[in-house]
Design a protein that fits this description.
With 180 residues, this protein is mainly α. The protein has two domains: 77 residues, Orthogonal Bundle (Diphtheria Toxin Repressor, domain 2), CATH 1.10.60; 81 residues, Orthogonal Bundle (Diphtheria Toxin Repressor, domain 2). It contains nine helices and no strands. It is elongated, with a radius of gyration of 30 Å.
Length: 180
């Protein structure tokens, strides 16, 4: 039978081992504080989401209510306190699925932005260069060439007359359909 001292530790364990044993069991105060700040930042990101996205994440009811309340608050002291409360509620939630869902949405929105920029570049090329339409028709043989030519002509006329960009928008929609 081993003897224990007043502290409950085995007497045979040297006293210098106790701090190392405790450090291995739990994270440092700095690490805990960093984790709390990360959770609060994730909570702030949740506040920027719309209702459909929040539904897609499947947050606990109390966290969902806190996020919804923070969305309606002005950017003052009350919102800061609400964000701290959200950070506190986030401690009880597994943040990894939330991070994954947000990352997926951000990836989709980046991909969407890249597609829109490509459509914009094609529209500007078609309006600036007469040979660009042949290149587009070679890449996309099923495209409506007659409608494209009409829209390009009408858009150029709109620009010269400084009219509303109706054909310009319609050309964008047609290019979006062709390129997708």
């Amino acid at each position: 039978m081993r003897k224990t001292g007043k502290s409950g530790y085995h007497i045979s364990t040297p006293a210098t081992e106790f701090p190392r044993m405790i450090d291995q069991e739990r994270p440092s105060k700095t690490q805990r504080k960093k984790q709390m700040n990360e959770l609060q930042a994730l909570g702030e990101r949740l506040v920027t989401l719309n209702a459909a996205q929040l539904d897609g994440i499947g947050l606990p009811e109390d966290l969902r209510i806190a996020v919804t309340e923070a969305q309606g608050m002005p950017r003052r002291e009350s919102r800061r306190r609400q964000m701290q409360y959200i950070g506190r509620l986030m401690r009880d939630v597994d943040p990894d699925p939330i991070r994954e869902k947000i990352a997926a949405w951000e990836g989709l929105s980046r991909e969407h932005a890249v597609k829109l920029h490509a459509i914009e570049r094609w529209r500007e090329r078609l309006l600036d260069d007469d040979t660009a339409i042949e290149e587009l028709l070679r890449e996309r043989p099923g495209a409506e060439s007659q409608r494209l030519r009409i829209l390009i002509r009408n858009t150029r006329a709109e620009r010269e007359a400084a009219r509303q960009p109706k054909s310009y928008r319609e050309l964008f929609r047609l290019l979006r359909d062709i390129l997708e």
